[in-house]
Write a structure and sequence with these properties.
111 residues; alpha+beta; 3-stranded antiparallel sheet; 2 helices; 10 strands; elongated
Length: 111
C-alpha cells in the first residue's frame, strides 16, 4: 500500500487497508486495536506500530509503503543480509554489489 503523505485521512486509510478508525481504535471486522487519532487523520508510523505492519519511507520520492500485517515479525530495516550465489557464467554474485539501488528479489520453488 503506497501513500504520498505520512498522515492520511481515516477514510483513505480504511479504503486502502480495510482498517476503520472508530472510537475504540482501528477496527477490521470484530477485531479492534487501541489507537489514538488526531482530527480523523491516521499517522502511518503510529498505525504501522499498532498493527505490526512494516512501513518503509522512500525519501527521494516522498513515498511511504505500508506492508501487510506481520504479527510482530516485520523486518527492522529494508537492508537485506549478505547473499552470495553462483551466477550463470560460473562466477559469484554478491547481493551487496547492488547496495544503494532498489532491488526486487523473486524466489521460486517447484514444490
Amino acid at each position: 500500500m503506497i501513500f504520498t503523505e505520512p498522515r492520511v485521512l481515516a477514510d483513505e486509510f480504511e479504503r486502502v487497508t480495510g482498517w476503520r478508525l472508530r472510537p475504540e481504535g482501528l477496527c477490521r471486522g470484530d477485531r479492534c486495536v487501541p489507537f489514538r487519532s488526531d482530527h480523523g487523520m491516521v499517522e502511518l508510523a503510529a498505525a504501522a506500530a499498532a498493527l505490526t505492519m512494516p512501513l518503509v519511507h522512500d525519501h527521494a520520492h516522498a513515498l511511504w509503503a505500508l506492508g501487510a500485517e506481520a504479527g510482530g515479525r516485520a523486518l527492522r530495516s529494508a537492508i537485506a543480509p549478505e547473499l552470495e550465489l553462483p551466477d550463470f557464467r560460473g562466477g559469484s554474485f554478491r547481493l551487496s554489489s547492488l547496495r544503494g539501488m532498489k532491488v526486487l528479489l523473486v524466489a521460486w520453488a517447484s514444490w
